[in-house]
Amino acid sequence: MAIKTILVSQPEPAKDKNPFSRLAENTKVKVDFRPFIHVEGVDVQEFRKNRVQLSDFTAVILTSRNAIDHYFRLAKETRFTVPDDMKYFCVSEAVAVYLQNYVVYRKRKIFHGKLRFAELIDVLKKHKKEKYVMPCSDIQNKTIPALLDKEGINYVNATMYKTVCSDLSDLTDVKYDILVFYSPSGIESLFKNFPKFVQNGTKIAAFGKTTAKAAEDAGLKVNIAAPQPGAPSMTMAIENFIKESK
Question: What is the reported pLDDT for 174?
């Protein structure tokens, strides 16, 4: 079967030139983007039920832009004035720079890792006297609290936002040759929106072992998996698949 159309279950990248645009040029296929999941903030009443007082903490662990947005949102909604001496520990420099939307960057105590959370642990270990709050979603990566617990970091998880399935009803009669997934939540959204979905000739591309397992557990056949030897990215894996299928 010739591959002509691909649907990526994520928002469209902001830049015109991105790996998927290059894939489209190289393979002459049409690539569309549609988020299968989105983030919603936990409302202040629900947050207060967790009995987390933001004023109890001296530092914040930030793993994403969403974490930053919802930390400052709930600080405002709970009428907590974030003190100037609050310390921020970010998983990457990109996340740290995003703090500029809320604080005067050069006047704050901001620390960051390189990219992976395990690298941030080395920074946190140098500040063990701090009491940390970690804004997170309802489906947090389990390795993160495991690493913190292992190093005896004094922290509290604070669920400030949640991942929910998007409404995809407008796609009912739209068919794609390849569906691309990056998380188990994307697979969940597919079947929540289309309970009677049958794969038939549709190819499933899954990034990461947990995503692939979720697809297989849902009865889908994973045709394209990434990362893999020779194809560390999803676009490379898809391009290889298309070339081989020809």
Answer: 85
- Tens of pLDDT, residue by residue over 87-143, are 999 999 999 999 999 998 777 799 998 878 888 999 999 999 999 999 999 988 788
What domains are there in the chain, each with its CATH number? 40-163 (3.40.50.10090)
In 3D, which of 144, 200, 208 has the Cα closest to residue 180? 208
- pTM recorded for the entire structure: 0.77
Q: What's the angle, vertex CA 184, arms to CA 181 and CA 185, rounded to 5?
A: 90
Q: Confidence band (pLDDT; 50, 70, 90) for 245?
A: confident
Q: How confident is the model at residue 230 (pLDDT cuts 50, 70, 90)?
A: confident
What whole-number distance in Å separates Cα of residue 56 and Cα of residue 77?
Answer: 16
Tokens of 191: 């079947």
Distance in angstroms (rounded) separating the CA atoms of residues 75 and 65: 15
CB 207 within 8 Å of CB 232 = no
